[in-house]
Specification:
alpha/beta, globular, 5-stranded mixed β-sheet, Polyamine Oxidase, Chain A, domain 2, single chain
C-alpha cells in the first residue's frame, strides 16, 4: 500500500490539474493519476516533428475574473490576443461563422432565402412546444429551413445520433443563446447591452491563446504542483475504486503495467461517470449500474498533417458541412499561433473525426487514417498528397459526453448514489457528464477544493 497523502485525483485534465494546483497551494499533498502520457485531457498539447498540436482547438475565453487572473498569472507574456477567423465549408465555398447574412444569402440563392425567411417567421409565430430535442430548439431559433441547411447534418455527424434523439440541453450548453435574431444583430453590428451580459462564445470576435498551445498552462501548473512535493503520475489508470463503509478506501492503479494501491483521505474524480461506476468495488445496485451502462460518449480522432505550404487557408478552424467526406472540422494550428509550427514555410493541419469506438474508423491503423485525411483534404482544398510531409494520429476516447434524451435521468440516478460516498467528489466534463468548457472545468475544480480544504486542515 502506498499512501497518496491527503488527496488522490483521478484524471489530469483541466479539472484534475487545477484541483491539484489549488490544493498544493494550500499545503495539501496531492497525487494526480493520469492514464495518458501527457496531462491536459482534451486540452493537452501534443508535440510532433516540430509542430504543436491542439486536439479540438481551445480558446482562452472566460467571463470568470478569477480564472482570467489565474491564466494571466501563470502564462504572463506567453499569451496573445487572437482575432477569431472561422468558417463553414458549405456547397463548395467558405461562409463566415458565426453566420454572416450577406454571404449566406449569396450561398443559398433567392429561392432558398425566401423559404428560410418564411420558415423563420413561421417558427416564431408557431414555435414547437415543449422543446425537448435539439431539432425542436434549433428549428425554433432559426426556422426549420436554416436548421436543416446549416445544423442538422453536421450535428448528426458530430454527435452520432439523429437530431430528434439529441437533448435540447446540448444546444443550450454549447451554443447558449445564439439564435437567428442574435446572428442578425451581430451581422449588422448591434451589441448587447450590459444587462444582457457578455456575448455568447459563438459570437465573440477575439480570444487569447498561448504561443505553444493550451498544454503550456498545464505544464506551468505541474511545475508548481511538483515544487510543493505533490505528484503527477502519467500512464496511470485507475482500474478499481475500493469502497468500505460509505467511503473510498483506496484506489487500485495500473502504472505502466505495474499494479499498486493509492490511499488518501479524499478522492477527486474526473474520469467518465460510466467508467467510475463500473470500477467501483463492490458494484452498486442494478439500477445504478444500468444507468451507467446507458451513458454514451463520443470519441474523437485528430489526424495532424504537416504540409509543405506557407498558406493553406486563413481560418483558425473550418466546420465541414459536406456529407461526401467523413471529416467534421479542420484546424490550422499556425493560425492560432505562429509558434505552433517551427518552420514558417510549413503548415500543420488537424483533420478531425468524431466517432464511437465501435465504428470502423476508430479501429483503422494510423497509416490508413493518414491516407484518409490526405484524400479528404484533396477533395476539399486540392492539397496534393505530395505536399504532405508527415502525419500523426491522436485518439481521444470518451472526449464528449452525449446528450441523448435519457442522459439526464441516468446522471441523476448516478449522482444520487455517489452523493452517499462521503470522501468522493466528482467534477469536470466527464465527471459530471456535462459538456462544459475549459474555464468552467477549472472553476468547478476550485470550488470543490474550497469545500474540502477546511475539512483537511482542521
Amino acid at each position: 500500500m502506498r499512501d497518496s497523502a491527503e488527496v488522490a485525483v483521478i484524471g489530469g485534465g483541466p479539472a484534475g490539474i487545477t484541483a491539484a494546483y489549488k490544493l498544493s497551494e494550500n499545503g495539501i499533498n496531492t497525487t494526480v493519476l493520469e492514464r495518458d502520457p501527457v496531462i491536459g485531457g482534451l486540452s493537452k498539447t501534443v508535440f510532433h516533428n516540430g509542430c504543436y498540436i491542439d486536439p479540438g482547438g481551445h480558446r482562452f475565453l472566460t467571463d470568470n475574473q478569477d480564472i482570467r487572473q489565474l491564466w494571466e498569472r501563470l502564462l504572463d507574456a506567453e499569451m496573445a490576443e487572437c482575432k477569431r477567423n472561422s468558417s463553414i465549408f458549405f456547397n463548395g465555398r467558405l461562409l463566415d461563422y458565426p453566420l454572416n447574412v450577406r454571404n449566406s444569402v449569396a450561398a443559398l440563392g433567392t429561392g432558398d432565402i425566401l423559404s428560410a425567411i418564411a420558415s423563420y417567421f413561421f417558427s416564431h409565430v408557431f414555435p414547437i412546444k415543449p422543446v425537448i430535442t435539439f431539432e425542436h430548439l434549433m428549428s425554433n431559433r432559426f426556422g426549420k429551413k436554416l436548421y436543416e441547411t446549416f445544423f442538422k447534418e453536421y450535428t448528426e455527424r458530430v454527435i452520432g445520433l439523429p437530431c430528434s434523439e439529441i437533448s435540447a440541453d446540448w444546444a443550450t450548453d454549447r451554443i447558449q443563446d445564439f439564435s437567428m435574431g442574435n446572428a442578425l444583430k451581430h451581422a449588422v453590428g448591434i451589441k448587447k447591452s450590459d444587462k444582457d451580459g457578455i456575448k455568447t462564445r459563438t459570437q465573440v470576435k477575439a480570444f487569447h491563446y498561448p504561443a505553444y498551445g493550451p498544454g503550456t498552462l498545464w505544464d506551468k501548473m505541474a511545475v508548481h504542483i511538483k515544487k510543493r512535493k505533490s505528484l503527477i503520475i502519467n500512464n496511470a489508470e485507475v482500474v478499481r475504486v475500493h469502497l468500505n463503509d460509505g467511503e473510498v478506501d483506496f484506489l487500485e492503479v495500473n502504472i505502466e503495467g505495474n499494479k499498486t494501491e493509492i490511499k488518501g483521505r479524499h478522492y477527486l474524480n474526473t474520469m467518465p461517470l460510466r467508467e467510475l461506476i463500473l470500477r467501483l468495488l463492490p458494484l452498486p445496485d442494478d439500477e445504478v449500474a444500468s444507468a451507467a451502462h446507458k451513458l454514451k460518449y463520443r470519441d474523437f480522432i485528430t489526424v495532424a498533417l504537416i504540409i509543405r505550404k506557407i498558406l493553406v487557408f486563413d481560418e483558425q478552424w473550418i466546420y465541414i458541412n459536406n456529407p461526401s467526406v467523413k471529416v467534421c472540422r479542420l484546424q490550422n494550428y499556425k493560425n492560432w499561433s505562429a509558434s505552433m509550427v517551427d518552420d514558417e514555410n510549413k503548415t500543420c493541419l488537424g483533420i478531425e473525426y468524431f466517432c464511437f469506438q465501435s465504428d470502423e474508423i476508430w479501429n483503422l491503423p494510423d497509416k490508413d487514417l493518414i491516407e484518409l485525411a490526405k484524400r479528404e483534404l484533396f477533395l476539399l482544398f486540392k492539397i496534393n498528397s505530395e505536399d504532405v510531409e508527415d502525419g500523426t494520429v491522436i485518439r481521444m476516447p470518451q472526449a464528449y459526453p452525449v446528450y441523448d434524451l435519457k442522459y439526464e435521468d441516468n446522471v441523476s440516478i448516478i449522482m444520487k448514489y455517489l452523493n452517499n460516498i462521503s470522501n468522493l467528489h466528482t467534477m469536470g466534463r466527464n465527471g459530471l457528464h456535462k459538456y462544459i468548457n475549459m474555464d468552467h472545468a477549472m472553476d468547478m475544480a476550485i470550488k470543490v477544493c474550497n469545500k474540502i480544504i477546511p475539512l483537511i486542515q482542521k
